[in-house]
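Marked as duplicate of an earlier ticket. Keeping the data here for the record.
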Amino acid sequence: MRQLLPLLLALTLLLGGCAPRDPLEEMVSAADAPIPAPQPTNVAPQEAAATLWFRFSSEPLLAPETRVLSLSPTAPYELTLLQALAAGPAAASLELTGLFPPGTRVLATHRQGRTLFVTLSRQILNDYADEKSLAADESVLRRRLAMQAIAATVTENCDVDSVVILLEQTATGGSSLRLRQSYYRDGSDASALAAPLQRDESLLLTPANTLHIVLDCWQSRNWARLYPYIARSDAATGQARPAYEDFAAQMEALPHLTGFSASAGSISSDGQTVVFSATLTLLDDGQTATTTATLRLHRERGLWRISLSQLTGREGLTP
């Protein structure tokens, strides 16, 4: 019996060593571990000004609209930017129009180096509402401007050189998600992948492009096209832009512009005026004279326009 007692004691200690740990002890140990900081769920969105590009009237060109965007901490800036572009211009921008078929959505953006990959919904491939009435060249132009609106908006606001357009994947889609050349409907190889988009200044109403259009309209005497480029309020006289008939009459009284050239222009410190030195060749009463003129464009609601007084008052030239 005395020999059994030590054996029973040893067995009891051995079994006690294999018993499960006290749950409370585990809770205390877990409490010693660092607790991760709670993630904020109600962070107020930040705001940032951005420049978006839309079509100007019926012109084959894009014009800028400056807008304040509300940025979410959970969404990439590029995604918010392009979703605003897809939503169209602000209601106050009466001369600007969007370029995407109804229902087109920007689903995702992904940046790789200096290239931005943008995934659009498949509505981008749909016809425009008035597609059946469009001339073939207008149909092609709209699609070209739509893609350039993306490229211009991205390169204007982000440190990016090019944009690759992807389409949302469907069960019947091919292995590649890249937009294909068939989107443009311009008769090129429909099966080829569309090239990455880059900024094309020839499609943008920059100050230099705006002045060229103004002088080209004067030379071709296309008053109807010129009229939207005339400032609504004359910066020099303060007078409102006259009705179209009066405007056309004043332009008809000017000498014929037969040739022109202009400098690259310099922008004012406040960014609201661009000054050009232009050489104008004018035909007046059968006599031709070449004169140097200083022409100014003023920013009006984000658009570059010229005051009517910059063009008038050039009668009576001598050779």
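See parent ticket for discussion. Residues 46-200 form one domain.
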